[in-house]
Sequence to fold (495 residues):
Amino acid sequence: MHPSSPRFLNPTAHLTTRALTGLFVAASIFVPDLRAEGGLTPDILENLRQSYRRDETRFNALAANPIDTLVLNRNVLDAHNAHFSHRIRFKGVTDQHQSGRCWLFAGLNTLRPAIIAKHQLDGFEFSASYLQFWDKLEKSNLYLEFMIELRDADPLDREWEAIHKWTLNDGGWWQFVVALVAKYGVVPKEAMPTTAASERTDTLNKILERKLHVDAARLHELHRGGADLKALRAYKVRAMAEVYGLLAQTLGHPPREFTWRAPNKKKDDAKQIDGKTGAKPEPPAVDLDLTPAKTFTPQSFYREMVGTSLEEYVSLYSDPLNPKMRHYAFKRARNLADKPDTDFVNIEISAMKKIAMASVMANEPVWFAADVGKDQSSKHGIMAVNLFHYGPLFNLNLHLDRAQRVRHHEGGSNHAMVFMGVDVVDNQPVKWLVENSWGTDKGDKGTWTLYDDWFNEHVYMVIVNKRHVPAEMLKIFDEPVTVLPPWYPGAAGVR
Fold:
């Protein structure tokens, strides 16, 4: 029978009414009812209505006040102090503004104390815009490489979805910083200042993502038309030229070299006030407070003025869902196509704190990733468990342990900061001094006090120098890696 015939389109057209009735009765016997049985029935809704007892005082308070104001735990607030037995000296607080560059700011902030101390600076800030430019360029190339690699993939594939969800956003990991600095070096902020687009990235990200999606669609058209890998990569290079131009117009054009002058460590005697007469000298013809200007490339500036070897640092994670003392990696968690994915050794939180404390006590800042959506106050600069008592206000049990939070996507790394101090009592950390990148208007003029119980619950990763890590833990990095999928909780990076 031809498929266009009426009988094919209506296979029951020849049946009588009685036969049809029997057919549908039989169908009702053998075909299961696919309707959900868990709906809210009228009886259930009435029971819910009857169970509610309005508390007028509580309702009036909630109607007139923000919830956080009502549930702020005064016991925690009253017991709070910002004393730290050990502080790493640093000057100034950075501001990532309305962007997701916390991982980058935290990475650069770990380097600032060393350059300030080494060159006796009153203050110093690296250009985040400089590395932001290269990060955007490299992520664009990485995305198009993923599109070439997955040119035959099902667009409903979960890995495809994960790539499109976070590959092109602002987020990242410590390893992203290491890869960028190794390839492109660093520059002072004045060598590549901020722009409106670097501080608020939403519109730039939207334009860039649309442009790259157009390129991805074109790559797949070329592939379906028979283009080989060489031809696809040739198109990609042409597309990257347009990406470069977009970034240069919005973020600025990265300098290939620049001049910089450091403060002069040796003050000229002629500048000092005469001890006998009290006479002040005439101003010098040149500024003796500054060394002669010197020309640097971004790479030479990093080598000569910073000098810290980022390759000596390792990532330690505390993931409650996987066995400890194992080597893991997040698949596709990188920003350069030719670099490995973000990897780490999974350890107990108690071991993580011990290692972090040793680093801070050695005056080495610690990059760390945490969940800042829990029990932290930007107004008071505090991170402490039960800082906000939501449960008692509503008579609810809201407790989840660390593993339950991660499993149900209630917890996980979402922001990176730097440990710059610790308060130690009886050889145990009581609280931690945190340098954030949210400017001086938030927290305690840009810093937070992170209490040790909050560390137990909400800190997930620390970056430390190898010399503070036990030898048996370092050996695990040489073991085969277990690769976690791109959609694993926390794999998308921090912002």
Q: What stands out?
A: The two ends are 62 Å apart (CA to CA). Residues 202-224 form the longest helix (23 residues).
